[in-house]
Amino acid sequence: MTVGNMDSAELFDAGKKGRGLRATKELYAGDVVFSEPSFSAVVFDSLATQVCHSCFRHQDKLHRCAQCKFAHYCDRTCQTACWDEHKQECGAIKKMGKAPSENVRLAARVLWRIHKDTGIVSDSQLISVDQLEDHVADLPEESVKQLKKDVHTFLEYWSYGRKQHSVDDISQIFGIIKCNGFTLSDQRGLQAVGVGLFPNLCLVNHDCWPNCTVILNHGNQSALSSALHSQRRIELRAVRKIPEGEELTVSYVDFLSLSADRQKKLREHFHFECTCEHCSQHISDDLMTAAAESEGNKPSADKVREGTALTKECLQKIEKSRVEQDYNTVVKLCCECLEKQENVLADTNLYKLRVLSVASEVLSYLQSFSEAADYAQRMVQGYIKLYHPNNAQLGLAIMRAGVTHWHAGQIEEGHGMICKAYGILMVTHGPNHAITKDLESMRMQTELELKMFKQNEHVYHSMRDAALKVSSS
Ligand SMILES: [Zn+2]
Ligand SMILES: [Zn+2]
Ligand SMILES: [Zn+2]
């Protein structure tokens, strides 16, 4: 399949939701519905010197653009591949003496591209950028203030011959970026490193229990010639079987929140009311707030309320210690909190899962792998009951838990989890993604170790049997 191919999806009128995309043929879990290069993208201000401005890989050593001294690249190939995108920006940064914020840089890149190519860059692009939703009229006062500031900086920064834009036009571009900007992560998917605009992806509506997931593919950067250097692009991948004609959806928010909280977030960030099945029927809300139950004994409602309030308070303290990098205190607080939750909150309760997640992460960092593995195991068991089986977040959590078990010397559990994570990521990320490739080699390594362990165990048992025989004869 070629980049930008739109054979599997078409634009349609999705009723109240406005425009949408639907499948034009039956799709299966792991199928790439379409892939799309970014219309424009920028690296975050805070990472401008650590992430390549062309391929968005996090690298230890980057080369600086000699002209503007702002843009950084892996090598000449990356720089050449991105020159078209950077050319005008380079001049503008030099003129201004410093680079403006990421929002302003992205807005300018979008406008430069629109001038060069008009809002459509290929036949497979279904919508021009200026037709995307901007919701400028719905912005709260605080955001309007920021928008005005950004527009002001933009006017100072912008240069395109004599071509000038009205404040309204520029505000619209900022609005489009705000509601459609897609966060780009580094090659391992571990850190958010930038933001970009993908027009076709913007047409995919939200569902809290979606049939697709979106993943950033950094392309093939090993090619030495910039002509063969494939572009960074997103892939929309099916997470289950999708019949022809069904609307394609992705989730704009993480599923692990109560339906009312997800709806609030979607209202504030994306300006719509989510009426998906999971929100309207409050599916899994009961599990996410559940009380512990053992042998038919349930704690009283008061006790659950008290336990929840204590956890909320504790999570604030945990966060504070974490920011201060006082990790021993974080662990102490987590353990105390989990003790108080015992027999009060269920293992699928969101508050318990948050504490388990922090505890396993920080203990791994402190290299207390056995303890970390116990917490990770409990967390994953909760996640499995809540997430869709092909959810990318679930896959990544199982992967981390597997690695923790492996480090803890629990090779059997570790290998099992790594295999499970691999199965999920083959669907959500595909076989060519860097994380899937990492998982593949971990899977082979742990398989080998497991074999050795089993062999040794066998040797151990047969030796013991032999010893017993000798002593009994
Ligand atoms: Zn690069
Ligand atoms: Zn430059
Ligand atoms: Zn929903």
From TrEMBL:
Residues 52-90 form the MYND-type domain. Keywords: Metal-binding, Methyltransferase, S-adenosyl-L-methionine, Transferase, Zinc, Zinc-finger. Its EC number is 2.1.1.354. This is [histone H3]-lysine(4) N-trimethyltransferase. GO terms for biological process: methylation. It holds the Pfam family SET. One of its GO terms (molecular function) is zinc ion binding. It catalyses: L-lysyl(4)-[histone H3] + 3 S-adenosyl-L-methionine = N(6),N(6),N(6)-trimethyl-L-lysyl(4)-[histone H3] + 3 S-adenosyl-L-homocysteine + 3 H(+). It is an enzyme of class 2 (transferase). The keyword Metal-binding applies. InterPro entries: H3K4_H4K5_MeTrfase, SET_dom, SET_dom_sf, TPR-like_helical_dom_sf, Znf_MYND. PANTHER family: HISTONE-LYSINE N-METHYLTRANSFERASE SMYD (PTHR12197), HISTONE-LYSINE N-METHYLTRANSFERASE SMYD1 (PTHR12197:SF184). GO terms for cellular component: nucleus. PROSITE patterns: SET, ZF_MYND_1, ZF_MYND_2. Transmembrane segments: none annotated.
